Amino acid sequence: MKKTPKIKTKASKEAMRWGADDGSTSAELAQQPGLGGNDFDVLMQHEADGVLAAKKIVAKLKERGVCLCQANAPQQLVVAAYDEAESLWEEGNFVPPLRVHDDASLLESRLWRPALQDEDRVYWVKGSPEGGEATAGTAALATNALRLLAGNLKDFGAGLNDQLQSQLGLSFNRLGQTMLSCYTGDRTYALHLDNCHGSEDEDGGSVLPDNGLRLTLVYYINLYWDPETGYNGGGLDVHLTDPSKTPESAAAARGTRALRIAPHADTLAIFLSDRMAHRVVETKGTDPRFCLTLWCLDGEIMQKAARTLNTMRVAQRQTDDSDAEDKG
Q: What span, in angstroms and rounded, lies between the C-alpha atoms of 204 and 199?
């Protein structure tokens, strides 16, 4: 059997500064939602064969770097998930996405910082123990609809792995924990890559290693989106750079046209984590916009990145100590 050539991931020879955004929130749009909502590439309600559906989705990822699906989740389930998310938000159950309390958690935070830079507070949707029952109470609301949607999202992501390998030469062996986000208030968001290896960290002191993130899935559960207003706050702009490689620079990504995705219920956006620059659409007012995010990743690569960061940190400490001795 002929081996499918891999699409190589290329980083710019010059380190990029994704954290140094220019503050611009406008983008020339290649495609945007119409009165009927998002223009989906794949409608899962019309896909009887899961393997063929996966093939279509990955073919679109190869062509454009992002695929837009109507997931076909039961309406009652989405309504229940939105109600749970709203209650969790209103009752203060969202927390900072990462807590640094030791060296290991510090390294973990640096690996995830590119993907989580705009996430002030989130709710991690944890799977229920095998054979266990959902617990009662507000903080356990996600044992119901949100947990079911999170499980479905993981199954969906896992089902794309074989086609990613055969069509793009990419693969993953681990699924992250599903994250519930809320975007609200008068706020703008940063253009970024979830995996910006080869770019400088936000302090400009070192070049970030590959954090292992390969595929990002974002699922929206918002029931009250009004197409006539043209307001898509909390949705997503995905800049349509060449999906076969990492953008040459942040400026180059900003200079391309974007696919605008409305955050309306049952929209599933899938994109390549280290190749497609994106930003949350500017929000205004107090209405919340909720989404679930799942990352598919290479666990071995992530562990290697943590070791690399630790080595860099130790070397920097030694340099600092040496400089201090010289000054003394």
A: 9
